[in-house]
Amino acid sequence: MEGLSYVADAPFVVIDLVNLKSVDVDVKSRTAWVEGGATLGELQYRIAEKSGTLGFPTGTCHTVGVGGYFSGGGHGPLSRKYGLAADNIVDARLINVNGEILDRKSMGEDLFWAIRGGGGGGSFGIVFDWKLKLVHVPSTVTVFTVTKAPQQNATQIVHRWQYIAPKLSDDTFILATIPRAEASEGQRSIQVTFRALFLGRSDMLVSLMEKQFPELRLVKQDCIEMSWIWSVVYFAQFTTEPTEILLDRTASTKSNFKVKSDYVKEPISEFVFKGMGPMFDEYEGRFAYMNLVPYGARMDENPETETPFPHRAGNIYSIMYATGQDEEITHSEKYINWMRRLHRYMTSFVSKSPREAYVNYRDLDIGVNDKDETNYEQSSIWGFKYYKKNFEKLVKVKSLIDPQNFFKHQQSIPSTV
Ligand SMILES: Cc1cc2nc3c(=O)[nH]c(=O)nc-3n(C[C@H](O)[C@H](O)[C@H](O)COP(=O)(O)OP(=O)(O)OC[C@H]3O[C@@H](n4cnc5c(N)ncnc54)[C@H](O)[C@@H]3O)c2cc1C
Ligand SMILES: *[C@@H]1O[C@H](CO)[C@@H](O)[C@H](O)[C@H]1NC(C)=O
C-alpha cells in the first residue's frame, strides 16, 4: 500500500518473486504449499482445479500477493467462518539473513508466530513458501450487491448494519462500502453498497435477511447462486470473464491510491454517517470511499496473542479509507489531505489508546522508523497501533533472527541489539 517493497531512499535490493508462483494442492490431506510470489487469484484458481469444495480465506483482490497478504494476517469474506489467512497457515520455509532455509521446526514457534501477522514482509526474512490448511466451502454459494441511495435511507441502513453484520451466523459476510452519492450534486449525502457472500442457497439467505436485516429489503432477484470459484471472480469485480482471469496479474486497471484504517468497537451514531455526506460531497472527496469489513463470529475466538494480529474480540468491524486521484499525480496531496481530515473526523468514534490500525492497510502517516538508526520509542508509536502488546514480542524475535537489521523499511520491526 505504501510501495515499501520497491521504493527506498538508500541503496537497496529488490528480490523479484515473480517466478515463485507454484501452488501444490493435496486434496487428500486438505493442504497446499504455495510459493511466496503467488497471487491470491492464482492460489484460489489452483485449489479450484483440484476441488470444488475446498478454498482458502483470502481477500477480495486477486492480484494481491500471498507474501504480503499472509504476513499481515489477511482478512476477507471467509474470515468470519475461518479466521484470518494467517490462522490457517501450518508451516513455512523462510530464508534468513544468512541464507539458511528454515522450516517451522527449525525456525521455532516464536519466529513462526511472527511471520503470521507481524507484517513479516521486509522484517524477518524471505518466505519461500507457505503450507496452508485448506477449508471447506459449499459447491454452491450465493452473492449479492445491493446499493442504497440517499433517498433509500442509506445512512439509516448502514447504521443498522453495524448491529447486524458482526452478529450474523458465520456463513454470512456483508461488506459495506460508502462512497459519495452518485449524481450527488446538492445531495450532500453518502450512499452505501452492500456486497455479500453467503455459504448456502439464495432461498435461505433471503429468509435470513427478512428476519435479521429487513431494512435491506433483499429479494431473491438480488441474489446470484454460483460456484465458490465464481464468487472469487465476482468479488474481484469481474462478471463475464472466465475464471482464468484469476491468473491474469494485469487484469485490473492500474491506479494509484492511498489508504488508512481504523477499528470500531461500538456502533457509531447515525449523525456521524450523516456528517460524512457534506465531506464526501466536496471536490476532493470524489475518488474516496470507505470499506467496512465486518468481524465477529470466528474472528472473536482466537486470543489477542495467538498471532501478532491483535484485533480480535471486541472489534465489530474494520474500516479501510481509500482515495485515488485525478490524472495528475502532482494533485494527489489534496485528495490525501481530504482523507486525513475524514480520518480525524472519526477520532472519537473508533478505537482509542492506541487508535488501532491494520498493518495490511499500511499507512506511513502513523509514524516511521528513525532514518539512521532504529529507535524503539519511535517505532512503538506505530507498532502498538498495528500489533498492540504483541509488538514487544515481535521486537524480541527480530533482535534474535536479524540483529543487524538487514531487512528493513520505514515500518519494519526494529532490532534492539
Ligand atoms: C486492491 C487491493 C485489495 C486488497 N484487499 C485486501 C483484503 O481484502 N484483505 C486484506 O487483508 N488485505 C487486502 N489488501 C492489502 C494487502 O494485503 C497488502 O497490501 C499486502 O501487503 C500486499 O502484499 P503483496 O505481496 O501483494 O505486496 P508487496 O508490496 O509486494 O509486499 C508487501 C510487503 O511484504 C513483503 N513481502 C512480499 N512477499 C514476501 C515474501 N514472500 N517473503 C517476505 N516478505 C515478502 C514486501 O517486501 C513488502 O514489505 C489489499 C490490497 C490491494 C492493493
Ligand atoms: C425510509 O425510512 C422510513 C422511516 O423509517 C420508512 O417509512 C420508509 O419506508 C423508508 N424508505 C425506504 C425506501 O426504505
From TrEMBL:
Pfam families referenced in this protein's UniProt entry, alphabetically: BBE, FAD_binding_4
Domain FAD-binding PCMH-type per the UniProt entry, residue ranges: 1-137
InterPro entries on file: BBE, FAD-bd_PCMH, FAD-bd_PCMH-like_sf, FAD-bd_PCMH_sub2, Oxid_FAD_bind_N
Domain of life: Eukaryota
Keyword Signal: yes
Keyword tags: FAD, Flavoprotein, Glycoprotein, Nucleotide-binding, Oxidoreductase, Signal
Residue ranges that the Swiss-Prot or TrEMBL entry lists as coiled coil: none
Gene Ontology MF term list: FAD binding; oxidoreductase activity
UniProt similarity note: Belongs to the oxygen-dependent FAD-linked oxidoreductase family.
Name of protein: FAD-binding PCMH-type domain-containing protein
Originating species: Gossypium harknessii
